[in-house]
Amino acid sequence: MTREPNLPEENQEENEEQELYEHHRFVVDKGQGLMRIDKYLQGRIENISRNKIQNAAKAGNILVNGQAVKSNYKVKPDDDISIVMAYPPREVELIPENIPLNIIFEDDYLIIINKEAGMVVHPGYGNYTGTLVNALVYHFENLPRQNNEDIKPGLVHRLDKNTSGIMLIAKTELAQTRMAKMFFDRKIDRIYHALVWGNIEEENGTISGHIGRSLKNRKIMDVFPDGEYGKPAVTHYRVLERFGYVTLVECKLETGRTHQIRAHFKHTGRPLFNDETYGGDKILKGTTFTKYKQFVNNCFRILPRHALHAKTLGFEHPVTGKSMYFESALPEDMQQVLEKWRNYAIHRKAEPDQSDLSDEDNLL
Question: Fewer C-beta neighbours within 10 Å, C or N terminus of the chain?
Fold first, then answer.
């Protein structure tokens, strides 16, 4: 039986990007006697093995008073302990499936995939087969083991079912643990391309605000005032192209919350183009002309998903320390829709009309 990340069943296939790590912090009691830190932590973290803690120490993920320590370190009163772990696994029988994968890079520790839109990352409620993890288990079956260690898909982040682009998967526990720490320390550079409703006039900007599950609809995320609810989230964006009624933007994530880009742009009144979950699957900007409605509906048919692509990924290799950078071309569906908008924008400039829907009528 293969171990699969213990992810909440609720809304699994809807997650755009979520970093898969746990962060624990403890301050040692004043009356605590000397004790090995691996034994100390095993008694305080639920369902964790001593070996898992020792691997975390080997990866440099256990800090005491800000300094990395080995697993035999003896805790002392008032020690401030911080540990970052890869997301805890659960027992799920994974069926290896011969599903084609677009592999960009692979070595003994990592595999980089260019994920197609429509592929669920991991098995869960309603999606027990046909996932990226099922495909990876099949791919790993015939690979040689490293130091007698089983090769298994180690998720450190994930992409939504309908988000395309670059995704990183660890092949060993050490690599997974170190990558989890890199995500926690914000040492992973990620850039997305998104097509959003509305004309963004500024060249660049930053969207911030805590993200948490909507209090009205548990299937979506919402943005809340700082400190009120949810977790801090920051998205930096830069305009790449303007088409009048929609804008192509480059998004750089400072944090990796569930649905971060989608929720942030919905919060600003500019949901992603054809994002059904966040209201982007309607005509929100444009004209009242029937031909325009037909044009947008044609775009929806070409791109039957939200317009979001994980474009680049940069990081330091968790074992070799080498600087790694990967880039993925926009998929055909997004390219086709962008070309249609380019042509429309050119035509609109040549023949301007007076039937634009007012912004006031279309603010979300």
Answer: N
- 184 contacts 255 by C-beta, under 8 angstroms: no
When pLDDT is averaged across residues 274-292 and rounded to a whole number, the result is 95
pLDDT for the residue 145: 61
Q: Is the pLDDT of residue 237 over 70?
A: yes
CB distance 246 to 195 below 8 Å? yes
Q: Which residues are known to be catalytic?
A: 160
Residue 84 pLDDT > 70, yes or no?
A: yes
Residues 214 and 318 placed together within one structural domain of the fold: yes
How is residue 52 written in tokens? 């898992």
For residue 41, the domain's CATH number is 3.10.290.10
Residue where a domain terminates, one of 185, 208, 223:
185
- pTM equals 0.81
What average pLDDT is seen over the chain? 86
352 to 197, 199, 273, 347, 355: CA distances (angstroms): 19, 16, 23, 8, 9
The helices-and-strands tally (H runs, E runs) of the chain is: 8, 22
Let me know: does 127 contact 87? Beta carbons within 8 Å: no
Closest CA to 306 of 358, 246, 357: 246
Domain boundary among 54, 86, 118: 86
